[in-house]
Amino acid sequence: MSDVAIRGVDLVKHYEHGLVKALRGVSLSVAAGERIAITGPSGSGKTTLLHLIGALDVPTSGRVEIFGEDVAAVRDVNHLRGRTLGFVFQLHHLIPNLRLWENVALPAHPLGISRRERRARAVALLEAVGLGARVDFLPVKCSGGERQRAAVARALVNEPRILLADEPTGSVDRATGESILKLFEWATEERGVTSITITHNPEVAQRADRTLEIVDGLLRG
Amino acid sequence: MLPLRNLMRRKLRSLFCLTQIAVAIAAFVAIVGVTAGLRAQFYSLSQVFAYDIMVQARGASSPMFSRVTPEEVAAIAQVEGVKAVSQMGFYVTLAKGRPQPITFLALEPGGDLLTRYRILKGRSLQPGDGHKVLIGKLMAEQDGLELGDQLVLGYDGDQACEIVGIFEPPVEGVAFLAGQAIMSMEHYEGFYNLKPQLAVAHTELGGRASSPAEVKRAHARCKEVIPGIEAAVPRQRARTILEFLDSFKQAETIDSFIWAISLLAALVSGIGVANTMLMSVFDRTREIGLLRAIGWSRLRIVGMIQGEGILLAVGGGLLGLPLGYLLIFLSRFLIQHGWLQVSLDPVLYLMAFGFALFVGVAGSIYPAIRAALLPPTEALRYE
After folding, report:
1. CA-based nearest distance A96→chain B, Å
2. Domain A34-55+76-220 has CATH 1.10.10.60
């Protein structure tokens, strides 16, 4: 088993037939269990990098390795996304007609887990993130902070080894942001999850083991 | 049950789509029911006249424009395999106090064809019966006619005929035959100065096929006799009942009609499903992006969207079946006064559901593929 959770090798990503050069040769290595923050100005390529690491997009050139396995060679990228990776986005993206536990359990659907087991997993995680009393609530009945915490629970439901977060505290107040960061710390410390968090917030970046800055599609520092 | 809950999110939109499918199913049920009824009538005719050969003038586009002479009838009777020959004439006229015209058959009293009509009341026609007619039981019921009543025929209502008998036609379940009337060939030729239009060569007296296989056997037997008839009366063309019915091109017309209307209904309702599902996919672009990001495969996304389409189709089918029966009921009793025969067998249910499922699956294919092909990164950015 590789001690390196994520390796990006000379990642280049162009859009619009090369007119937009989002990444211009980024290489990085993240150890298993490490907490990384990626900062940088808007449009610098942070989200693009996260999408490449998360197998949501493919690089124009270069390669991504997850625990030593080249993502481009992975036969079932859906399985990789569903089992190894967990995503938290700036917006919670909860499905409005599903109850909180059903939203949290969504990543478990493709794994063929029974409804009872899905619910048990989701309820346990909702309790862990302080939403035990909201299990059967629809998202519309929850506050913004509660929804974002539910989104974190959803990212963890399949016990991923890597947590990727794009501005997870960007749309919540300070207190909620703090609770979400504590959830991240709990996930990394208790579950050994590797995390990469994109943030504009210096306080969030300071709590990471290491901060990488990306400017104009290139990593600094 | 994610597809069902997705549909419930836009109740009104889903209801409109479901109604659209239901109307298409109703139209399908009504059309197929009626046309299947027509087919059943044609099959009954082919059973009753299985051993008969229809002789009609070459080049006559319909029996109405045909003519057969007494000499030709005598020549046909001499052909080997022919046991008897009947003559037949057609006459359509108006009757006083009746909105729709009456179709008269002119038959020979005592002839094989007339004996196939079962007399329910009164008597059959006899030689010398001028201005005397038989009417079908449906006409008697609908027009409230009884034995001894007068049918006043002609465009000026100047020809009165006495009803001497009420009959049941030889082919059960064929409403238009029960709505006809019969006059004697003598009256037809003498009073109206008309000539027999068809000769019917009987290879078996009172013969009737009891199964499709027997219809085929009888058809083959008649085919063997036909060359002899056509040699004896070169001006005439002889055909089995199956060929005669086919000459009306009814079967093809019915099939074309069913397919054209069904395809149109499927197209319209399929577009409705596609529109609904496409709007739903647009509305849920970010959701679909999220599902892809958390590990849902393209196939699973296709399954979800197709599931919604199939649910709409099943709902439309459940609503459309009773609606179709209602349409049939209305058309039978309001438009056709009970003359329309309808076949409603279990196969029709299956066909209607198959039709609904086809509409649901076909209508949601494009939206499902579109959803599945959405790149997750773009879908998540979608505003």
Report:
1. 9
2. no
Domain boundaries along the sequence of chain A: 34-55+76-220
Q: Are A211 and A177 in contact (CB under 8 A)?
A: no
Three-point CA angle A14, A17, A23, nearest 5°: 10
Q: What local confidence, expressed as pLDDT, does residue B251 receive? A: 60
| Residue B61 shares a structural domain with residue B158 | yes
Taking 80 as the threshold, does the pLDDT of residue B178 lie above it? no
Same domain, B235 and B294: no
Write out pLDDT tens, residues B73-110. Answer: 999 999 999 999 999 999 888 888 777 788 889 999 98
CB-based contacts of A58, cutoff 8 Å, min separation 6: A52, A72
User: What is the spatial distance between Cα A105 and Cα A110, in angstroms, rounded to a whole number?
Assistant: 10
Q: What is the pLDDT of residues B100-125, one digit of tens each?
A: 788 889 999 988 889 888 999 999 99
The residue from B221, B248, B275 where one domain ends is B248
- Chain B residues whose C-beta is within 8 A of a chain A C-beta are 2, 5-6, 8-9, 286-287, 289-297, 300, 375-377, 380
Q: Are residues B218 and B292 in the same domain?
A: no
Min distance A125 CA to chain B CA atoms (Å) = 16
Residue B331: pLDDT band with limits 50, 70, 90: confident
Are residues B178 and B145 part of one domain?
A: yes
Structural domains counted in chain B: 2
Domain end call among B196, B214, B248: B248
Same-domain pairing of B70 and B212: yes
Q: Which residue range forms the structural domain that includes residue B38?
A: 2-42+251-381
Three-class SS state of B171? coil
Distances (CA, A) of A191 to A162, B104, B127, B345: 10, 93, 107, 63
pLDDT given at position B340: 61
**Does A84 lie at the interface with B, CB-CB under 8 angstroms?**
no
pLDDT band at B155 (very low <50, low <70, confident <90, very high): confident
Q: Which residues contact A205 (CB under 8 A, 6 or more apart)?
A: A37, A39, A199, A211
